[in-house]
Amino acid sequence: MKKSLYFLFISVLFWTSCDPASYQSEVILPRIISDGMVLQRGEILKIWGKGTPGAKIRVSLAGVVGSNTVGEDSTWVVELPELQAGGPHLLEVNQQKVEDVYIGDVWLAGGQSNMEWELKSGVIGTEEEFAKGGFEDIRFFKVPHSYSALPQEDVSDGQWKKATPEHMPNFSAVAWFFASKNRAEENVPVGIIESNWGGTPAEGWTEAAVLASLTGSYMEEAKEIVENPDLFEAENQANEKRRVLRDVMVKGPDSVVAQKTSALDFDESSWSIINLPRANPLEHIAWVRKSFNLSEIADAKLTLSTIDQQAYIYLNGQLLHYKDWGVPMPVLDIPSDRLRKGKNVLTIRAINTWNNRPVIGSEDEMYLEVGSRQIDLQGTWAYSNSDAEELLPKVEWLNWKPGMMFNAMIYPLINYPLKGVIWYQGESNAGRYEEYQELFSAMITNWRNRWEKSDLPFLFVQLANFMERKNLQPDSDWAFLREAQRQTLNLPKTGMAVTIDIGEAEDIHPRNKKDVGERLWLLARKVAFKKEGLAEGPVIQSDFTLTDSTAVLNFSSVGKGLQLSTGDKVLGFIVGDDNGDFEAVSAEIISESQVKLALPMGKEIKEIRYAWADNPEVNLVNELGLPAVPFRKVLVEQE
Known about the structure:
- By secondary structure, this protein is α+β, with helices and mostly antiparallel strands.
- Among the domains are: 255-384, Galactose-binding domain-like (Jelly Rolls); 539-634.
- Helix content is 20%, strand content 31%.
- It is built from 12 helices and 36 strands.
- Strands 2, 4, 5, 7, 8, 9, 10, 11, 24, 25 and 26 form an 11-stranded mixed beta sheet that branches. A 6-stranded antiparallel beta sheet has the order 12-23-13-19-16-17, with no helix packed on it.
- A hairpin with a 2-residue loop joins strand 21 (366-370) and strand 22 (373-376).
- The termini are far apart.
- Mean pLDDT is 94; it is low at 1-17.
């Protein structure tokens, strides 16, 4: 406190005694230092940018002042003392003004699509959130997707957006629910920096020089990138040119092309004949047409429950619906005047920019209901991906390569003080689970080093349950990845939100993001704000009691005691013997913090696992309903 007061005194003295005319030079600020920004309370603040070498820089904010001189490399940094929460303030850098600045808590929301998933994309509970009207002291800055083999000075674009009804639908749902809790409980403004990208692996978010010293499958390529960044950057630039062309092509069909291709009398004789949905997936910009006849017309409903990712749907030459990425395909109401007696034609233009393989329809979910009649749309369709429009150029996911997203989407932010990081990722690394603990731990440490804050809170989401439910699945990649995530908790100031109970078997993007964000907030209260209270579900302890027929396990984080979310028996435990054979076992709660397992007779048990499958059935929780943390406990060391 004395240091801050001294800094303030010297700063004010300096301000009043120096000639303001000497601070006239122009400056360039990074995009994140812009109107509406939120800065971290209680931290030394860095304001930085570019200017003319040798020019003087003066910065003022909320009554404090700092100064510096532009270096020979045209860069400058000015530090300001810690400030309390509040606003709005005016930030002045020489003659440049940044308005509507707040001081509060700032979090970086990183990862892949489950963090990127927006409120507008079918998230449970969003209508209630929208009805509240938003909070103007919650602001989001979305870093655009970008990648580079070289560290970038600034992000490619972006601006701070207030949480208003206009902007909220485009916010990360997980980050929104988290930020809402932060604002409500701490009573401070909240800033969220979204730096995330669907489908991305952790190595793309980690500095290549760090990866080059590790042992994973990415090591050799990381070394090549470190040694020849210009070569990789040239490849990136060429790939981006193809992407820009691709994006122009898929954005929307030319109106003349669309009208012609969807018309009733369009000649489709040169097109291929395919069977949908059996022919899925298709390729490039897929145009398909299906004719059907009506003897009577009436109001109708069209069901095409599966379209991946985007589609324009036409009926008799007129646009009926546009289905966007991430938005569920609704049942479409068709007024009778859009139909006609005799021949009708349904035309679909489908695109999938993720893998260039669009999907149209699924079994038993392709039909048209006209009055009391149901017309099956499965079967033969006319198909072309090169007649109406050209084939798409090949665009590769070069951003997945070591360090590429770190350089363009993380490195430009490292001067910006944070309260911490919230992270949801791992799906794209599940096939290489054996290297994830080392990789993820290295990434966290890398970020902490770059922010020069060894105790930067890092809170992450463990993979949710997903895919077909199987009674026994000891070889599950997703279970092993979850275990690697759990082991990453060995790093200090980390926390893991367990979501093994709120996933969806058929969708890798569960729509329950509210519980995810709020579970991350419980961890933030404990890790970042040092508050007491339950922050996680039951956690297995190292001590246990083993007999020939039973195992008694001890748990912490139980609150008032272990509970079951459903049923009267604990579900989800399996045991393995010295031959590597596993079987499910029954279990029961025997005290506030203990569970007893009934072990198979005549076997030497080597392992106990809990919630060990892609999509396990589990029900062990604590008093807050938080699920027990999945685990693997080895009882007998392997030779």
